[in-house]
Amino acid sequence: MLRSTPDARGYFGPFGGRFVPEVLIGALEELEREIASAFADAGFWKEYAAALRDFVGRPSPLYRTERYAAGVSAVPLLLKREDTNHTGAHKINNTIGQAFLALRMGKKRLIAETGAGQHGVATATVGAKFGLPVDVYMGAVDVERQALNVFIMQLLGARVHPVTGGTQTLKDATNEAFRVWAERVDDTFYVIGSVVGAHPYPYMVREFQKVIGTEARAQCLDRYGRLPSDVIACVGGGSNAMGIFSGFVEDADVRLWGVEAAGDGVGSGRTAASLGAGSVGVLHGSRSYLLQNDEGQVSETHSVSAGLDYPGVGPEHAHLKESGRATYVSVTDAEALEAFYAFARDEGIIPALESAHALAFARKLAAERDANDLVLVCLSGRGDKDIAQLRV
Ligand SMILES: Cc1ncc(COP(=O)(O)O)c(C=O)c1O
Fold first, then answer.
1. 372 CA → ligand 1 middle, Å
2. Most buried among 28, 72, 151, 331, by the most CB within 10 A?
3. DSSP character for 185?
4. What gap in Å lies between CA 277 and CA 321, rounded to an integer?
5. pLDDT attached to residue 116
6. Residue-wise over 327-360: b if at least 16 C-beta within 10 A, else e?
């Protein structure tokens, strides 16, 4: 069985660890100690669960689609509806947990990076809820393509800082957030948006997103009396996927599928499929798969979806890939867009472009399954944020 907790140095198999400048080591150790104490404290989880229930609106529904896959398969296609969460995506599960930790640690402000803006919105939301000022770093390209979310963050009182270096997307926003954190580690809590970064971030974020898989597993058993045959989620950094996978990783018969953004195609050079087209290296503090050239320079990435447009992936996914427990595939921009429009028309739900990648693959996979199977897809978020980009 795979280790579900990283080892003492923060490794999932050979992946993970802590590759950061000296100045951040103390802050990561402090966070590690706080996590150990909070996670062992029933009161912490009680408060977290109450906030998820009353503020986020959990449990999110398990919903059986009606038409989207009907033309290709009789298999029930189930959605875990993270789009119904307050702020419209799974990101809020994680920011609530990290905000509680920041309060326990007496930190005075929150910082965050964001790509699609959903994590920035979720951080701005908990900042407003808990009375903590928030600074969000966002690539200038993403500021353009996710203008609605920038406005929402500002409405919530957060300051949004456009980052103009590099490709002006999530990687550059993350670099900047790390730099700012190093300058003010004493009073600042860095709320990371996915299962990436140095230990203990990948582990901590997964624990906060685990609620997706725990709920989905119980809902499947309750409603259908059996587990899904397949669980599918899109993978940017990998937090919604790790969240839903965690509920099923010990069920050997449940196949786990992570769907990366192929962009123009995995071999095209314009892609964001880190597991599909990348190699092992170090990015943002941990060892995992990333898109890099022969000299180890991080490559430019491309995806129509801002939330998947990231050259790295969480270390636990690298471990799940190499151990064979999960399978990683990819979907192109064109396929994701086709799924986005078809799903909206067929189901009355506008999916996030990120989630549309999972839906595109789900329909292909459903065609290979029969009516006794159950295919479960994590609908990680809603697509309102993407509408302005698509209308241009
Ligand atoms: C709706 C949605 N889904 C998925 C993602 C990808 O992130 P992760 O792979 O961490 O779930 C994002 C990131 O912004 C998002 O906004």
1. 30
2. 331
3. T
4. 13
5. 86
6. ebbbbbbebbbbbbebbeeebebbbbbbbbbbbb
